[in-house]
Design a protein that fits this description.
Elements lengths: L12 E10 L12 E8 L6 E6 L15 E5 L6 E8 L11 E9 H7 L1 E5 L12 E8 L6 E9 L12 E8 L5 E6 L14 E4 H5 L7 E7 L7 E8 L1 H4 L8 E3 L3 H7 L8 E10 L4 H6 L3 E9 L22 H13 L7 E7 L1 E3 L4 E3 L2 E2 L8 E3 H13 L3 E2 L6 H11 L7 E9 L6 H11 L4 E7 L6 H6 L19 E5 L10 H12 L3 H11 L20 H5 L1
Parallel strand pairs: 17-18, 17-24, 24-25, 25-26
Antiparallel strand pairs: 1-4, 1-8, 2-3, 2-5, 5-6, 7-8, 9-12, 9-16, 10-11, 10-13, 13-14, 15-16, 18-21, 18-22, 19-20, 19-23
Helix pairs in contact: 6-11, 8-9
């Protein structure tokens, strides 16, 4: 599938943010303050703060619990900074300068979500200072129709549409729209050569089937498939989710009506076959936030390309050139890292390198620790990752070839231990070149597709990245040389050059890149949980974070 900017626009969910304050600084001489909070956010790609609303004013208290909530679309792939400014309201004026400023606090929406509740010091300016009270923020996902339904249908005595007295039937499900149109939401498989089809059961989100409205009309059309694409209508009927929820029976036995035949034959027309509902089951579905709030730990590992095609690090033309402006690798690390860090409790990130001659003996390695430690790959915080990278580039010799499979297998070893949903692993590979171990890489990805793991590949530079597009096999299962197909899509590839426009500041590039790169992670995450029947733990039974050890096999290599 070709790269399509802007496909990450839809929110993962919508959350409701609640605000309380404690021990606010008194601004009035003879009474307590009358606090109000103004909430701001930074819109994507814009550093300016935009006001999104104000709480009510609560009179005469230093410990307010505000009733007004703030509904914020949640995007996993964005930083989503929030700013809260507290005022002592002195009049009915809407101008903030007419009220006494008490203090401010800021954080990202992800920090609130991942912790469930955060407590922040209020200060007079951004970045710290003397505390003027505390703010308590909590977030809860809005109640939405998350359920799925499992349906199965069977047909009997369908009209014969083919020359030899058979049909190739399939069903198309369409939901009614407010405009009166019907939009297709699902198609069954085609069953060849039968007028008595038994289609496979399928699961579909209630939101997709009927927008959560159990009385919304659902039209089901039965077609006879033709290889030319000119499929012929056998007949159709209408139903609702409420009706189907009654399960198999008379109410869910439907006559197929072909309107053209009905109009032509009038009273002699008896229908074009019968469709029976064989199975109805409602299943509770869980969101990405359900798992995060239940304590699932997300681990991010970085893998950096140190092959010679990047150019000499001492040359300004090199992709590894270190200067006052971030290079392509630094942009990629910060883009993803600044989002992921809010979901990592210990802020320890393994960083691997590949394609270099490494000290002390200059041997070629495709799986070494970028901090050049012999027994610990972890770097503290994203600044620690960047620091290790900058130090490493001065001590290794760029070489080659570009092999991905070792670093994929390295992270997969950890992911294979945690199939219970308590931990999920993200591998960020940053590379400038064409893969030289493509067969092994495909095999490693196919193997990892059964694990709680996602792989993000950011291509830097101007190389031909056609092979990366193959790995990012949206819609088509990636297939290994032995014919084994990937259980699910776990790769997202994005070329950095699509975001590096002349005159664009690095910060804007990082935000836009992160938005696109991380967009598929929640979907990939949920596909693993659903396929392995993992349900999130209750919020009060949070999973304890684990500190992952270095790979023992790597240490012995």
């Amino acid at each position: 599938m070709s790269f399509a900017p802007g496909t990450a626009a839809l929110p993962t969910s919508e959350v409701e943010v609640s605000i309380s304050c404690r021990s606010l600084r008194g601004m009035d001489v003879f009474s307590k303050s009358d606090p109000m909070v103004v909430v701001y956010r930074q819109l994507f790609g814009d550093k300016k703060w935009a006001e999104i609303g104000r709480t009510e004013t609560i009179e005469n208290t230093h410990d307010p619990d505000f009733a007004k909530k703030f509904l914020i679309p949640y995007h996993f792939e964005e930083m989503q900074p929030l700013l809260f400014r507290v005022f002592d309201v002195d009049s009915s004026s809407v101008k903030l300068e007419d009220h006494d400023f008490i203090g401010m606090a800021s954080c990202s929406l992800a920090q609130i979500i991942s912790s469930g509740k955060v407590k922040l010091n209020l200060t007079k300016k951004e970045g710290g200072g003397k505390a003027h009270g505390q703010m308590i923020l909590s977030a809860e996902e809005l109640s939405q129709v998350k359920d799925h339904v499992v349906l199965q249908f069977q047909g009997k005595k369908l009209d014969k549409k083919n020359f030899f007295g058979k049909s190739d039937p399939f069903l198309v499900f369409m939901k009614a729209m407010e405009s009166g149109d019907f939009n297709v939401v699902h198609k069954t498989e085609v069953l060849k050569g039968t007028v008595n089809p038994l289609w496979k059961s399928f699961s579909i989100p209630v939101r997709l089937l009927c927008n959560g409205d159990p009385e919304r009309t659902i039209k089901i059309v039965c077609y006879d498939w033709n290889s030319s694409g000119n499929n012929v209508v056998i007949g159709e009927f209408e139903t609702t989710l409420n009706e189907m929820s009654e399960g198999p029976g008379l109410k869910t036995t439907y006559q197929l009506i072909n309107k053209k035949k009905q109009e032509k034959k009038k009273s002699s027309y008896k229908g074009s076959g019968t469709i029976f509902l064989l199975h109805y089951e409602k299943q509770k579905a869980f969101s990405f936030l359900d798992y995060i709030r239940g304590g699932t730990n997300i681990h991010c590992s970085f893998a950096i390309d140190f092959t010679g095609s990047n150019g000499s690090p001492t040359s300004p033309d090199s992709l590894h050139y270190i200067s006052t402006m971030p290079n392509s690798y630094e942009i990629a690390i910060q883009s993803v890292g600044n989002i992921i860090k809010d979901y990592d409790s210990d802020q320890q990130f393994p960083v691997l390198g590949f394609g270099a001659r490494v000290p002390p003996d200059g041997h070629i390695s495709h799986e070494f620790f970028v901090n050049l430690s012999t027994d610990n790959p972890y770097c503290t915080g994203i600044e620690g990752v960047l620091s290790a990278y900058r130090n490493c580039i001065r001590q290794v010799q760029l070489h080659g070839p570009t092999n991905f499979s070792p670093v994929i297998q390295h992270v997969a070893k950890f992911a294979s231990v945690f199939k219970d949903g308590t931990n999920y692993f993200i591998l960020l590979i940053i590379t400038d070149g064409v893969i030289t171990d493509m067969v092994k890489t495909v095999k490693a990805i196919v193997s990892a597709s059964t694990l709680p793991m996602s792989i993000i590949i950011i291509g830097v530079g101007s190389a031909d990245f056609d092979a990366m597009e193959v790995l990012d096999s949206d819609g088509v299962p990636l297939t290994a040389s032995d014919g084994t197909k990937a259980a699910r899509d776990i790769v997202q590839f994005v070329p950095l050059r699509n975001f590096m426009k002349s005159g664009t500041n690095p910060h804007s590039t990082m935000e836009r890149l992160a938005k696109e790169v991380l967009a598929e992670v929640p979907t990939q995450f949920l596909s693993f949980m659903r396929s392995n029947h993992v349900i999130p733990r209750p919020v009060n039974e949070n999973i304890q974070p684990v500190e992952l050890p270095p790979d023992p096999e790597l240490l012995c290599a």
